[in-house]
Specification:
This is Mg-protoporphyrin IX chelatase. The protein is an alpha/beta fold. It folds into 2 domains: 151 residues, 3-Layer(aba) Sandwich (Rossmann fold); 86 residues, Magnesium chelatase subunit I, C-Terminal domain (Helicase, Ruva Protein, domain 3, Orthogonal Bundle). The protein is 47% helix and 16% strand. The chain has a 5-stranded parallel β-sheet with strand order 4-7-10-1-11. Strands 2-3 form a two-stranded antiparallel ribbon. It is globular and about 65 Å long.
Length: 326
Amino acid sequence: MKLCLLLNVIDPKIGGVMIMGDRGTGKSTTVRSLVDLLPEIKVVAGDPYNSDPEDPEFMGVEVRERVMKGEQLQVVFSKINMVDLPLGATEDRVCGTIDIEKALTEGVKAFEPGLLAKANRGILYVDEVNLLDDHLVDVLLDSAASGWNTVEREGISIAHPARFILIGSGNPEEGELRPQLLDRFGMHAQVGTVRDAELRVKIVEERSRFDKNPKEFRNSYNAEQEKLQQQISSARSFLSSVQIDRDLKIKISKVCAELNVDGLRGDIVTNRAAKALAALKQRDKVSAEDIATVIPNCLRHRLRKDPLESIDSGLLIIEKFYEIFS
C-alpha cells in the first residue's frame, strides 16, 4: 500500500491507487499522512485551479488567455493539494456551480469552483469509495478520463482542468466497486489485518505514544520523514531519464496477454510503475525485480473474476510472471 502511494506521487500518470482491506487496518491514516511527504509545485498565484505556469495542459482557460496575450504570470510554490471527497457531497459541491443571478444581471460567467478544481494537479481521496453515489462515480469517471471538468447549467458552459491522482479506499465486505471505476485506478493494494502478536503490540504502543504527546511523537520521526521527502523529490526529477528495455516491455505485455487482461491499461501502468520504482531506487534502468514488485498491484483488479477460482489473483500474476521471465 505504501509503495503504491509513493510511486503515484513520483509519477502521477500511473493513475491512482485503490486500497481494499479490513476495517481498522490504517488505510485512511496512511493516505492522509501522505500530505506531509508531498513535494512543492509551481502554480500561478491566485488561480483557483492550481494552473501550471509552464504546461498548457494544466492551465485554466483564463491563465491560457493571459499567456497568449504575453502577460507575465506571477508564480508561487505551493504544496500539492490533497482533497477529501465526502460520501455525502452534492454534485454542485464536487463540480462547482454557476451563479445564474450574477450571470443574468451582470452578464459575466460567475463560476464558483468545486472540489475537482481544488484537486487539479493534486490528490483526490475518496474514503469508502464503494459506497459513493452512482452519479458522483459518473462525474469522477468523466473527469479522470478527460482531465477536464465541464459544468453545464441553464445554457452556460464552463470547463476547467481536473487532472488528479485518484485514491480510493474501502472494505470489500461493504460491496464491490463498479468495474468502470475500478479500471480507472492505476494500482490496487490489498491490506490484511496484522496477525503477528509482536507487531500488533508495537502498533498499540505507538498509538498510545501518539495519544499521550502528538508533537513529541511527530518529532521522533522527523529525520526519517525528511529523508523520504528528499528521496521522492530526487526520484521525481530523475524519472525522465529512466529507461526500460524492449525485451522487458515485450515480457510485460506477454504476461498481460496470457492472463487475458482487458485493454492495454495494464501494460501501460506496469511500465510506468516499474520506471517510478527504479527512479525511487536511483537507478536509470528498470530491472526484472522492479517489475516483479509492481506487477501484482497493477494487474490484480484487471483480471476477469472466476467464481470457481480459489487462488488469489496476486499469486496467479506472480506465477505467470516467473513462468515468462525465468
